[in-house]
Amino acid sequence: MQYKISVLIFLKDPSGRFLMLQRAKSPNKGLWSPIGGKLEMPKGESPFECAIREAKEETGIDLTEKDLHLFCMAAEKAYEGKTHWLMFLFDCSKALESLPADFDEGNFSFFSREEIDQLAIPETDRDGLWDIYDKYHDRFVALKVDCQPGQPLDFQLEELIPADKITPAANAKG
């Protein structure tokens, strides 16, 4: 199986509700998830560039790197028994002022964090993604997840950087 590299972006409205997309395509057709997409690897696109592009394409919001906090890198092994995913998860500090128009990849709605637990969401999201967001969205964590079909999901923490050790890109010296 080959790796696919993707991003997920956690966008919120001014009241703190999360933007969710009910997917019209695989993977996760019919299920609700944060927006995102695959890196354009032939172009050498970075995860930040991909998150900015996908947010613009899917919602119309203009973001910069300063609007995004990379809080998780997750390697999913054998997702649905079909592929491996290397995912970069971003929390966005810029609020989305209105609900985007539906498009060919699905329809949108805003949900509170509590409402998300009641939605039809992918198994990996229910068993880990939202717990990861709740625990780590203000810091950085690297995880690997064994998603072998017929087996319970196995999440393993590979690295955790506490919030007080995070240096925002705007203040980084290089």
Automatic annotation (TrEMBL):
It comes from the Bacteria. Its cofactor is Mg(2+). Residues 2-133 form the Nudix hydrolase domain. The keyword Hydrolase applies. It holds the Pfam family NUDIX. PROSITE patterns: NUDIX. One of its GO terms (molecular function) is hydrolase activity. Signal peptide: none annotated. InterPro entries: NUDIX_hydrolase-like_dom_sf (IPR015797), NUDIX_hydrolase_dom (IPR000086). PANTHER family: GDP-MANNOSE MANNOSYL HYDROLASE, MUTT_NUDIX FAMILY PROTEIN. This is NUDIX hydrolase.
